[in-house]
Design brief:
This protein is mostly helical and 177 residues long. It has 7 helices and no strands. The protein has helices at residues 3-23, 37-49, 60-86, 93-116, 130-140, 142-156, 158-161. The longest helix is centred in the middle third of the chain and has 27 residues, at 60-86. The termini are far apart.
């Protein structure tokens, strides 16, 4: 896959993450009166349709992930979107490695919880059947897959590592007279 195609995927991921985080995810942290009824209805619809009670009544550990999203990830989203829109910005490498490692690590307990937790039916029904669990996993999976793709790109792409295909650095060598 071309590096430019990956950069466009990363741009779309980060650019789309901004409104999702602000208008949906942060509802788990902020007081209800902050959001208009339309956004609250959208969240309730999503939670009912995809049986995601974590968004309506988040466990403490899940809230801590959203808190990290607010303090660490959200400020990074526009910066990353810009870097990948522009393309070839080597300065994004280290922050992207930190981001992708952090997010991939948080998705493991989230996906495990979805797959193995015995969700109650009330007050907010969670997934009960394997099909419902896998449907919810599909909603969360891109937030694991794209960060892993990002991590691999930052670690191994010569565009971001500065290495050529032969493994040598692209640094300029000095002429010896």
């Amino acid at each position: 896959m071309s590096i430019r195609i990956l950069e466009i995927i990363f741009f779309l991921y980060f650019a789309s993450h901004i409104p999702i985080t602000l208008f949906i995810d942060f509802q788990a942290l902020l007081p209800e009166h902050v959001y208009p009824q339309a956004l609250k209805r959208l969240l309730r619809w999503y939670a009912a349709e995809y049986k995601d009670p974590m968004m309506l009544d988040p466990p403490g550990w899940f809230k801590s992930f959203i808190f990290c999203e607010a303090l660490v990830q959200m400020p990074f989203f526009p910066v990353a979107a810009y870097a990948f829109w522009k393309g070839g910005c080597k300065w994004i490498r280290t922050p992207a490695i930190v981001y992708s490692t952090h997010v991939a690590t948080t998705l493991i307990p989230i996906l495990s919880y979805i797959l193995f937790h015995q969700f109650p039916q009330l007050p907010h029904p969670g997934p009960q059947t394997l099909r419902e669990r896998l449907t919810l996993v599909q909603i969360y999976a891109p937030y694991l897959v794209v960060p892993v793709m990002l991590l691999l790109t930052m670690l191994f792409s010569s565009t971001y590592t500065g290495a050529t295909q032969g493994g040598r650095s692209k640094s300029k060598s000095k002429k010896v007279k």
